[in-house]
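tool_call: predict_structure(chain=1)
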Amino acid sequence: MKKSTKKLLYQTVSHRKWPLPVKRWSYYQEWNKALFLHWKVPADTLQQLLPSGLTLDTFENEAWISIVAFTMEKIRPKNLPSFSPVSHFHEINIRTYVIHNGKPGVYFLNIEAEKQLSAVISKMLSGLPYEKAKMKRNHQNEIQTYSSNQKKKGFEFAANYQVSNNTISKSELDLWLTERYCLYLDKGEKNYLYEIHHLPWELQEVRISDIHTNYQIGSIDLNRKPDLIHYSKGIDVIAWKKELLKSK
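tool_result:
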């Protein structure tokens, strides 16, 4: 990470709901060309998919699940260089929104990665539910395409879309869905917190011309048109080591 980027990250904190961690950050990564798809889902059903100790976060009493399809780049531990065969890969995560002790964050229901080695290393180091999927991404003329097929679970994703250079003025819901500065993980009988930091997402207008989703998460079916979509060129992210939360 360039010194100018690091300085900007540390100086831009007014958008956060709580201060930066005192400890030094441990990981750097870039989440680029991110397509966000959001669905309203039944809150009672979604709460059943969460580990004990985490509470579902809602917006105006409505619960949401999001698919975020992006390209991970330059992921690396602090003070070490990135290695593109491992640190650069397409990723799709399925996430929902939770809160613990007043900190709103995200909880991953599933994560797909383009490369087997990247999936194995990411899962081993982070504990997050990474799995290998067959993924492709193309950009021809003004049309972008993104597809994924995860045979083990029968998950499928395909989208054709066009991105405008026009940025959007973010609504309260837009902010609620995208500006999250921690993520939660359950492993065994314990829950953990990962603190993260980045600049606010710059969101652009996007139009989807064709989409196919085949995701069954518990009894929640995402095989329908999303209720809301976003797109961003991407952000630089720093993350801290996971912290143990109180026992379930």
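agent: The mean pLDDT is 95. Proceeding to next step.
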